[in-house]
Structures are given as structure tokens and as C-alpha cells.
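re: that complex we talked abt at group meeting.

here r the seqs, copy pasted straight from the sheet so there may be weird spacing, ignore it
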Amino acid sequence: MQNWRDEKNEFSILMLPPAFWLVTFFTLPLVVVWVYSFGNRGPLGETNLGFTLVNYVRAFELVHMAILWKTVWITIIVTALCFAFGFPMAMAISFAPGKWKLRLLMLVILPFWTNLLIRTYAWIAILRPRGILNGGLKWIHDTWYSLIGYGVEEIPKFVPWEILYNDKAVVIGLVYVHIPFMILPIYATMEKLDKSFLEASLDLGSSQMRTIFRVMMPLCMTGIVSGAMLVFVLTLGNFIVADVLGGTNSLMIGNQIARQFGAARDWPFGAALSFVILYATFILLWLRSIYAARLEQRDAKR
Amino acid sequence: MRTFSSKRIGKSKVIEPLAYTKRSVIKLVIFVNLLFLYLPLLVLIAFSFNDSKRNIVWRGFTFKYYEKTLKNDQLMEALTNSLQVALLATFFATILGTMLGLALQRFRFPGKGPVDAWAHMPIMIPEVCMGVSLLAFFALVKIPLGLFTITASHIAFCIPFVAIVVRARAATIDPAMEEASYDLGASRIMTFWRITLPQLAPGIIAGALLAFTVSLDDFVITFFTGGPGSTTFPIQVYSMIKFSVTPEINAASTMLIVLTSIVIAVGLVLHAKTSEKDSEL
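got the structure back, here u go
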């Protein structure tokens, strides 16, 4: 690696144009919103600059606190579910024989490339009252009653499971959209894992379960932490899934932000809400970098 | 000693302790995960050929909704807008991203850590935040929302994607090649053009394809930075979804899926070819 002083011209030619673009269309806009978050809303929905913390205080008022709290809860549940399904899947990919490894990996990545909105919308056909899921449930319901042989009059009518346009649908959609972000980092660390640790544990008489929980998981912690962090951050800011699959009561903070900049036209408040989740994101990223640095130190000592 | 008993030969099946994929639990995990990942998309694609307005039961195969989609002027205009934005954004993001990737890979400079983290921030922060901040910014500097603002924003969030890919490629290049070129009397520009660029090319192409799909698929940032008359394909699909659930949306979605799949397939083929070449060297 060269020192920039030795090649000042080359360095500036390479660095300045992209830096200029990112400052103009990324950093400056964030600064604008940050300044707005201390302003207040005029009677016509215009933004007046000022210095007030009212918007931040409002974000933690009861009504908005409820949405914030719910968003955090949904995010925790989504992250946990992604881990519960993603970890064994990462294991399956990592321990699959030769060509299957690549195939499974491709199969996990592929849906990831399709449009987020379309992937979310696709769930409507499955979850709606007369969709695929309820069709399957109805079939099970009908065969079950025909098998145990109730009289025709006694068969209870099939009631579709109300799973669309509520929080359940939002959780399903969010897990669906974000699960590759959990699988891939865990898989990446598992690939680097020295498998003889697992063999040693098994040879010394631990059960498979114990080996997975006490040996494999701690050794894959970097991947698990990265995956969980990614899923958490992405879920926290997502607003499409709740918008498409959620009902009127399943607003998440992302929807709330979008509403303030749209119909509600209260930009200072929307700006403050944006910065609430941005601060949360920054803190999480910072914690992750501390964690990564600590792991590096520990490995260096070995 | 459960593990040893599973190793004992004699009974019908012997499973190696670490051959997890042979275990039925893991097989079930793979099945459930893949079903979960693919069922929605397969249902969506299947229903786009379903000859039924209400889209619930299968009533026979039809191309009707594709014809309708292709005749839908609004949708086609949105597709044109999307392609225009994606091509322009890819062009500029590829150039700027390549520069950034090279600068970060080659040079040591004060404050590199924070600059590095900052340059990747557009990928990390919630898209909603970036979208609303761009909206506020364009309103403040009084640039009317339209295809220009969408493209400028797309370039900004595509730059880091290209930079990551190019940087990874640049790290694999042997500096001796460039040194040899200088020793043989080639100028800076000549060396960059004849030695560095060809070696970087696979990374640049991969980055460009990534930027293209990311831009083509983007909904959130376009939602906030677009205005009337600059509807892109995902935005049009969104308003159709909000309006009602029709088979036409399925057909339009399938078309977009096919379009991105083609771009990815091209990328994978190119990647396979270059890695073949690399291994020959």
C-alpha cells in the first residue's frame, strides 16, 4: 500500500470525484435532516429551523413509544426466527458434500436478487383467507373430519386462519426477506471453522446437541453476531413489508417516518424519528466493531 | 456414547458424525427453508399464467395477462424510465465506484478507517432514512423531483457496491505487473490503460451488473426521490398493489424477475469465464 503523499495527484484524481458525489448526495442530505429534526413545523406544514428537542420528546411519547416499542419487539422476534431457521441451514450448506454446497448456496442467494417489493407481495397469494396456506389447512381439516367419520351435520365449518394484514404476516414477510442475511455470514465463518474441534468434542463423548451448542455456536460467534446485526438493522428500518402485508395497526417506525414525510407533512418530527433509528443503527454498528476488534485481539494472543 | 453407536457397522445405515446433510432432521431443515424461500415466488409466477380474474383457483393456462401488461402504456413507460435510470446510474456509479475502490485499496492516508466506514454507510443505514433525507435535501436546494433526482440518488447508493467488488478484485492483482510496465518505459496512463484496467475488468463488470440490478430493483429511495412523470417499474407495481391484487401484477412481476435473472445469469457466466482464465494463468 502506498502513502498518499507519494502520489498526491493520483490519489486526488481517484478519491475526490466519488467523495464529492457521496458528500453531496448522502452526507449533506443527512445533515439537512439532522438540522430539521431540531426545527418545528409551521402551520402550513413548512419546516421552520430552530433549536428545540420537542420532536425527540414527542418520539418517546406514549402513542409513538408504542410504535417504537412494537418495532423493536418485531425486530427481536424476526432476528430470533432468522437465527432459528438460518443456523441449521448454514450448517446444512457448510457440511454438504462438494457440488451440493455450491448448489444450496446458490439456491439461498437467488431469491435475494428478486425485487423486495415483489417478494413481499408474493406472500399475499399464500396468506390471504382463500390463499394457498388456508387452502392447505382446509384440506387437512376436511380430510381429518372425513377420516374420523363425523356425520355430515356435525362437521364444524372451516374457519380460515386470519394471518394476512396483521403482525403475523409482517413477521413472516420480514423473516422471508432477511433470512439470507443471517445464513450467509454464519456460513462464511463455519467454512473457516476447524472441524476437528467438533470431532474432538464428539470423540470425548458429548452428544451432537451439546457439541452444536457448546462447541460449534461459540466458534461461529462472529458470523452469528454479524448476521444478527444485519437482520436487526435492516428489519428496524424496513417499511415495505409492514406497508404491504400489515394491517392498519401493524405500523412500524419506518412507516411512521414515511407518513411524516408524506401525508402527515411533519418533516421535523419525521426527521427526529429517522435519527432515532439512525442512532440505534450507529450504536449497533459501533458495538459490532468493538466486538470484532476484541475477537481479533483474542485470536492474536493465541 | 451415542456417537459411537451410530458409527457401529452392521445395521442398515451408517452416518458419519459430521455428515449432517445425511441426517433426516437437517434434510427437513433444508426442505423447509427452500420451501419457504421459493413457494411465494413459484406461486406468483404460476398465477401469472392462470386464466382466472380472482386468482384463487387454477382455471387453465393463459398468456392473456402478459399481453395486457405489454399493452399497458403506463407500465411500459415505467419500464422505460426504470431502464433509463438504471443504465445511467450504472454508468456513473461504475466509474466513481471503481475510483473509490482503487483509492481505498492502494493508498494509506490519515483518517482512512473513518473514511472507509463512511463510504460504505449508504449500504448500512436504513433505506427509509436515506430516502427521506434526499427528499428533504432536494426540496431545500429546490431541484424538482424527477428522473434526475432519482438517478443522482441511485448513483450515490450504487457507488459502495461497485467499490466493494472492485476493491476485492484489485487486491488480487500482482503489483509486479505494473512495475514491469514502468520499467519497460510505459507512462502512467499507458500502464493504467494496458495493464491495470484489463486486470480489473472482471471486477468492474461484476460491480456494474450489481449496480444495475440494485438500481433496477430499488423501490424505497425511488419512492421518496421521484415525482410525477418519473414513475419507475417498481413504483408502478406498488401503486397497482395498493389499488388491487390482479393477475396483471403477477405478470409484470414475473417479467421483472426474468429481466434481473438474465442480468445475473450474464454476470455468472462472465464470472465463470474469467475465473477459468485466471486459473489458466
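couple things i noticed - The first helix of chain A runs from residue 8 to 36. The first strand of chain A starts at residue 2 and ends at 3.
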